Amino acid sequence: MADLDPVTKSLPNDSCTLAEARLLFDEVINDYLTSAKYLASDATIVRCKRFELVVSKIQSGRQTMLTKHENVAVTDLVSIPIDERVSYISSS
Hints:
single chain; 92 residues; 6 helices
């Protein structure tokens, strides 16, 4: 389990993005195949699978790979200024 130390130390970090967390989870899945049930991008615990996928693509610089539907889904996120997004998220 010492192999998981870098993961458990990185995740609580405020600067860890969803894309970075996805990479960390994928590494854990490669090392511990049974963890896929809990950590895979399509695991039951992931409530908005498409949202996670789209945000991960954007954060990792792969926004040109977004499908037409994914672009439409994130249009509202892109058009809201960052300070308003933070206020909106905090009030939810």
